[in-house]
Amino acid sequence: MSTTNGIGDGPNEGAREPAAGHPAIPSQDDRNPDARNPDTRSGAGWLGAGRAARRAHTRAVIHQASSVLLGYPDEVFFERLPLAARAAAELPRSQARTDLLEFCEHASTTPELALAEHYVEVFDLRRRRELHMTYYTDGDTRRRGHALAEVKRVYAEAGWRVSARELPDHLAVMLEFAARGDAEAGQELLVNFRPGLDLLSRSLGEHGTPYARVVDAVRHTLPAPRRADEERVRRLAQEGPPAEDVGMEPYGARPRVPLPLTDITGRPR
């Protein structure tokens, strides 16, 4: 992965906590924009807001560490691996923390060439084991170009730029955006692609790869799946992603015959 991960600059780059001794206490009236955030309604007053801030920080660290760990295991990956492991170790005890630490242990004790070969074997052009999330919603169809453009639009609205060498729907890119770009928009993207994440987790687990633990750590940061999501996963597992007998157009282009767009944001147009 060529995307720059903030964890390379420090394990907590994705979300900063208030300075020691100076807790941030938000306004308690209805004009506080945080009042519209469900996370801040989990408790009364500043205590509830503090819990919400800690949860947001934990989620950001999990997303940033997972972004690093799902990158191709090149020289930069192994430089950042100790930082990802340290960040994971500082998380509160949870299944996500355990999953990340177990993968970090595996990656740090596996020869670099062997880990790189395993990565390619697991993710490279393997049906139902794909890190590009629009593949699960739109497969190799012309419609996928629109879905990619929609993901890129979400990034642009947040002032986030992705390297031209990366497709914007790569899970590691989405996770870094959620950690360091726009937490709310990033979480919404992950939730909307949850069926793909769930199928990826299932497929990785059946394959027996330790990468399943990283994807599972990400899934632990999401709300419980809806019944509709579970049904989509079931259909995806049975039928696979959509397919066409044509190649994918560049993701910024429009096809000559209008096709329905895949709504990946859930936001009104």
UniProtKB/TrEMBL annotation:
Pfam families: Nitrate_red_del (PF02613)
Keyword Coiled coil in record: no
Lineage: superkingdom: Bacteria
Stored InterPro entries: DMSO/NO3_reduct_chaperone, NO3_reductase_chaperone_NarJ, TorD-like_sf
Keywords: Nitrate assimilation
Transmembrane residue ranges: none
SUPFAM superfamilies: TorD-like
Biased composition (Basic and acidic residues): 28-39, 226-237
Record bears the keyword Hydrolase: no
Region called Disordered, residue ranges: 1-46, 225-269
Cross-referenced NCBIfam families: narJ
Protein name, per record: Nitrate reductase molybdenum cofactor assembly chaperone
Gene transcribed to yield this protein: narJ
